[in-house]
Write a structure and sequence with these properties.
Elements (H helix, E strand, L loop, with lengths): L4 H13 L24 H6 L24 H5 L15 E2 L12 E2 L3 E5 L9 E6 L9 E6 L9 E6 L3 H4 L2 H16 L5 E14 L4 E8 L7 E7 L12 E11 L2 E11 L2 E4 L6 E14 L2 E10 L4 E8 L12 E5 L2 E4 L2 E5 L2 E4 L2 E4 L11 H9 L1
Parallel strand pairs: 9-11, 15-18
Antiparallel strand pairs: 1-2, 3-4, 4-5, 5-6, 7-8, 7-10, 8-9, 10-11, 11-12, 13-14, 13-16, 14-15, 16-19, 17-18, 19-20
Organism: Aporhodopirellula aestuarii
Keywords: Signal
Protein name: Magnetosome protein MamS/MamX domain-containing protein
Length: 379
């Protein structure tokens, strides 16, 4: 029997919070069908903080309200010349006059969060975000677990941040179908490739400019394409003829197969590639907590150095590694999502008080939290 949508939403909500989930512990009617992601009305009070935003710079212009959607006419009059790609038309492509290059000039890889808890080159957990209407804000995400370490993902949950009506849209149904298909083909074990740098180029993505290399290897007739992550995260650009080893996951972009590197080895050193997302720096003006499916989360209003305002979910309020308050200078990274038609950054990494903290939104071992989940279910 196919589980009800309410039942699926319970398991998905647990995935969002990093809580354990067991069908035997949670009743399908625990949550109302229309239960909002943020349970209390404080979320709507927070929305009044907005006087601008800083998520989607594609069509920004001084003195004009940025509604977080791409508009071609706005882009024409934009002052932001670095973001002139119409991502609503295609997720990859070439600039005019450059159709025969070995890799695209721009490509939208989406946002994926990977977790290799025991550093065994196998991802225990992956979260992939989906943007239904390609407005630069994510509307849903799917989470995957390889619970027994066999290289395949046994568990998959899909959660939509949007209203129930949006969950039934063609775009939402298509995204969920893609997420389910991905589970069947995606492998948790990382792939490593070693080769000599044949070509190097910088590729525009919606959030960053990435370095992409073409590697030649005597054991393969075809050069291999590797995305090495944001250019500003690399100490230096790979040299032509340089030997390197990249470890990560492969995916398809058009007719290209690309390794999305998570780790880079070259010249005797190893680098973990940071793919946390766009970076925003500013000062916390206000802070508060709000319930997210039964767990208190810390929210912050950040005035950025660019004079704009961000609303950020900093994760569970009880986080001993994160010590911030109003007035704290802070840098946050992560994907921007749309909840109740409001934009919010879901922080995956926070820099504050001279310390960098990764925000954990998924359980390291779900079975370790079984007793906590059982306690919540009995309440």
């Amino acid at each position: 029997m196919k589980p009800s949508r309410s039942f699926r939403r319970i398991s998905i909500a647990c995935a969002v919070l990093g809580l354990a989930f067991s069908p035997a512990l949670v009743r399908a009617d625990e949550w109302e069908e229309n239960t909002r992601y943020y349970e209390d009305d404080a979320w709507y009070d927070v929305s009044e903080w907005f006087d601008g935003n800083d998520y989607n710079p594609t069509d920004e212009a001084i003195g004009r309200w940025d509604d977080e959607t791409y508009d071609r006419s706005d882009a024409v009059t934009s002052t932001d010349e670095d973001n002139d790609i119409d991502w609503t038309s295609s997720s990859y492509g070439y600039n005019n006059g450059n159709e025969n290059d070995w890799y695209y000039d721009y490509s939208d890889y989406g946002y994926n969060s990977y977790s290799d808890n025991n550093r065994d080159n196998q991802f225990d957990y992956v979260a992939s975000y989906y943007d239904y209407d390609r407005d630069g804000l994510y509307d849903a995400y799917a989470s995957y677990w390889d619970t027994d370490g066999d290289g395949t993902y046994e568990d998959m949950n899909f959660y939509s941040f949007s209203d129930v009506t949006d969950e039934n849209s063609d775009e939402a149904q298509k995204s969920q179908a893609e997420a389910e298909a991905k589970q069947k083909t995606q492998q948790s074990k990382m792939k490593s490739i070693t080769g000599t740098v044949k070509s190097v180029k910088k590729v525009k993505t919606p959030a960053t400019t990435n370095v992409v290399v073409q590697l030649s290897d005597s054991s393969s007739d075809q050069p291999m394409i590797v995305d090495l992550g944001p250019a500003n995260e690399l100490d230096n650009t790979p040299r032509l003829g340089q030997s390197l080893t990249a470890t990560g996951v492969t995916f398809k972009a058009g007719d290209k197969t690309v390794l999305l590197a998570q780790k880079l080895e070259r010249d005797g050193s190893t680098t973990q590639i940071n793919r946390s997302g766009r970076s925003y720096t500013g000062t916390i003006e206000k802070a508060m907590t709000s319930k997210v499916r039964g767990q208190e989360h810390q929210l912050a209003k950040i005035n950025t150095d660019q004079g704009k305002t961000l609303l950020v979910d900093l994760g569970p309020a009880k986080n001993d590694d994160l010590n911030v308050s109003e007035g704290t200078q802070i840098t946050v990274k992560g994907p921007a999502v749309k909840i109740k038609n409001r934009a919010m950054l879901m922080a995956t990494q926070v820099e504050a008080n001279g310390k960098t903290t990764d925000i954990k939104r998924a359980a390291v071992k779900r079975q370790d939290l079984a007793s906590s989940s059982q306690g919540n279910a009995r309440k």
